Every structure is written in C-alpha cells, then in structure tokens.
Amino acid sequence: MDLFDKIKKNMGPIGKWADIADGYYAFPELEGELSNRMYFQGKNVICWSINNYLGLANHPEVRKADADAAAEWGLAYPMGARMMSGTTKYHLQLEQELAEFVGKEAAYLLNFGYQGIMSAIDSLLDRRDVVVYDAESHACIVDGVRMHPGHRFAFEHNDMESLEKNLIRATKLVEKSGGGILVISEGVFGMRGDQGKLREIVAMKEKFNFRLLIDDAHGFGALGATGAGTAEEQGVQEDIDLYFSTFAKSMASIGAFIAGDPEIIRFLRYNMRSQVYAKSLPMPLVIGNLKRLDLLRSKPELKAKLWENVNYLQAKLREAGFDIGDTTTPVTPVYLRADEPLVAGVLVNDLRENFGIFCSIVIYPIIPKGTMILRIIPTAVHTKQDIDETIHAFKEARRKLDDGTYAAASKMLAQ
User: Fold this and answer.
1) Alpha helix (H) ranges present in 160-282?
2) Which string of b and e fits 69-78 if b means at least 16 CB within 10 Å?
3) What is the pTM of this model?
4) Taking residues 54-78, what's their average pLDDT?
5) Element spanning 114, H or E
6) Which among 10, 284, 290, 401 is least surrounded, fewest beta carbons within 10 Å?
C-alpha cells in the first residue's frame, strides 16, 4: 500500500473530525491582545484558553524589553548551536538566575519545552536503566519515555502503592543490569489540575534508590511562596533531583530549562541532541525571559491576583454544583456528561456564539467516552465580571445539556 493512501484512510482518532473541527474547535484563530477578552471570528469573547497565568504577555515592561531586544539584536543573533557559536553572556546569566530561583546549583537553557523534556529523558537513560513514570504524564513525557530502549513502567496516577510496586520491579531489574532508576512525575497535571504527590514520592527514597525528575510547567511561577513551583509549595524543593519547566505558561514566552546537580547539567549540555544540534535560543527571547523572571521575583502581587481569581472562580463553580475534580491549582476542569462528541460540539458552539465564552474542550480519546471537560485557565488579568458571566453561561449550558436541547441539535447535524 502507498504510504499516503494508508494515511488518508486513517486520519487518527482526532484527525477524523477535521472537516467539522478545523478552524473552530481545532486550530481556532484568536485575535487581539493576549488578555482576558479577545476576538474569535469577529466576536469579543472571554478567553479561558491561554496559560498567561501572571498576565505577563502584555505587561508594558515585558513588551518594551522584547521590542528593545529585537531592535538591538534582531532574531538571528546568535547564530549556531550553543556548543558551537550560540552562547552569550545573557544565555549564561539567564541559566544562573533560573538555577538560583528554583534553588538548584546549575541550570541549562532549552529552546522548547516539549522537545526539551523528551531529549533530557533520552539523554539520561541507556538500555540498562529503568524509567518509572506517572500514567497521566503529559504527552511530551510519554514520547520521551517511548524513546527509551530499556524497561519502562507506568504507575497509576498519584498512586503510591502502584509506584512502590513498580519500584520493586525496577529495583530487581537494575540489580541484574547494573543500571539506575529514574522516576518522573509532574508538579501540576495539566488536565486535572491536581498536584503530583511529590512529598510522598520523595519519601520513597528511604526504601528505594532512584532519581526524581519533575516537569513543573504549570507550577513554575504559579505555586510556592516565591513562585518557584510545586516542590516549593510542598516543601521538598531540595529533594527534587532534576527540576524542569517551560516558559510557555507563567512566563508567557518560548523556551524552557532544566536545573539540578552541576555535573548532571554539564552532562546534559554535552549530550542533549535537541540542543547540541539545534540553533541557540534567539537573543530577544533570552533578554525577554530575563525581564519576565525579574518581574516574577519582584512583583508578588501578580501571583496574588492570579490566586484571588482562581479561588473566586473555583468557589463559584463548586457553589453552582459543578464538578471540578480535585484541582488545587489554577488549572480548572469542569466535568460534564457528553454521550456523543457532537453534543460536546453543540455545547461549545453555544458558549462561543451566544454567551461569548471561549474555553478549550476535551473529549474522547483524550478522556473516557461519555465525558467532556471544559478546561478553564484563570489568569491575573481576568476580572470578577468575567467569572460571573462565565458561571451564568455554564449554568445555562448545563440546563440545555440536561433537558436534551443539545442532544436534539446534534441529531439534526448528524442527519
């Protein structure tokens, strides 16, 4: 069979909906400044779909730093990979400041979060090693683990009994192979909004010999007394062997970093293929990220405002009887029944067209059949009015879901 013919006959579990979803449910075009209200297909909507936690995307000091750096350096500088010709004093300064901020001795600046964690996992492990990871880890972790040529075990989400069983299995294997064990969890799970049980995982070190890598994409900047993340929030920052985060959330930028023991970071600098063979992060992004980190440290009121909105939103949702699961973070999932994917589509269409509410929708195969999630990301720039309008819209949507209005509309669309 021709490769392309095979692909055209099976576009994948999400791709099969492309004709219906493209440009609306998938790959929508949001316009206007990144903020609490944006434009979607000409309509002003309350936007709950961008991870601009601290509102830095359009902070005047950030915009000025980005613009000044672009004017001074352009987007090409520095040319080449970090190892060859792409290192500057500003790259090194950002690494040092990031390491200090998260309480580690050294850090390595990465071009992207997704490829960064994948490449780190690939670099750290050889076929003698065993990796044990949370079953609900982000796709970037799963893809990194899939590259591992040795044994890999997934423990049930945040289940310490399952983790212990898998560590017993892993220990038996490395005793024979001479390898080591890497445990991977997230600080904040981006779909559920719950925190990884970092304290409990760290406690397992008393019984087992392993190293712990944490992906804290949604925790960095949003959790912890200083904003240093989930491990700081749980009081175990010193016990995290490798701390990873992206700039795509609280920093509202591009890039990522990994921090830990200086010798391990040096190893990664010389062995992470995604960095060794890729062009260095452009100077405007480096300078801009230095400014963002400075604001994260110097303006605690941004995080305070974020949490004021988080607490108000989640309290109002619970008060209205919505199921938001076990979230203890800004990530706010609203669980609703959706027997058919088209029902979820009709509901979201109603929210966008008639109530001016734009939020992300999550359906099967990402979550089990019969369920949908409206994923809400509150930020420091949202207002109580935004929240009140959204609660009203959700109540109306739930009423229509319960009385069959959406089901009837979906049947008409299917005909």
Assistant:
1) 160-177, 198-203, 230-234, 262-271, 273-276
2) bbeebeeeeb
3) 0.95
4) 96
5) helix 113-124
6) 10
